[in-house]
Amino acid sequence: MRIVVVCTGNLCRSPMAEAVLKRRLAALKARHVAVSSMGTMGLQNLPASELAQAVCLEHGLDISAHRSRGLVADELAEAHAVLVMEPVHKEDVAAACPSAAGSVALFGAWPRREETLDDMVPDPIGRALEYYREVYRQIDRHAARIASHLAQGATCHPPST
Fold it and tell me: Which CATH number is 2-151 given?
């Protein structure tokens, strides 16, 4: 099973979410799930932001080797779920890969079918370290739910429209 996590630049939220989700899946021995991340802005080969790296290190995760990637249509098409941070990312994914549109959901809501604006994970770029910490806590809370769902062998389903 392939999961792609998407944010705007692939510099803060999605690299943190990728790392946290991988760790939670490994702890649950869910080896059947592969996780990657991308950004809608098309930034290539940039490291995760310094504050994202710092917050991850506070939690024992080293994302210093991460390099940003733009949306890759072939990978999006093959993904079982594309988990985005904001509703606008859904539109960006659909534009880049129309066949993936049905597998896109908010990271903060999945696997629920219903989504609200409260399910968005806010962008910490340009904010203080404490804001990054709050975003990390949100990501970790959502990743726990997502990993548990995936580890149980659950199937992915599109959100309701």
Answer: 3.40.50.2300
